[in-house]
Design a protein that fits this description.
5-stranded mixed sheet; alpha/beta; single chain; globular
Length: 91
Amino acid sequence: MMILPITDAQIDYAKELQERFSKEGLRCAVDYRSEKIGYKIREAELQKIPYMCIVGKKEAEEGSLTLRRHTQGDLGAMSFDAALTAIKAEL
């Protein structure tokens, strides 16, 4: 999984999500680069990363995330627990 913060303001929340997913036994990393989100998504798709976790201002405020699946696209905004359930169901 790759966690993609939209701006530098969401990096702390992205790190928090990374820790939570790691504690659940999932491999994940945060993309810290100051690139546009479309570029980050495209790079993750080209690397065939199974899940992308998009984190913007709205998600950070609500404590949620937007999940994307490789080749399937946007799965929508959801809570951490809902995302974890969806990912573990596939595993």
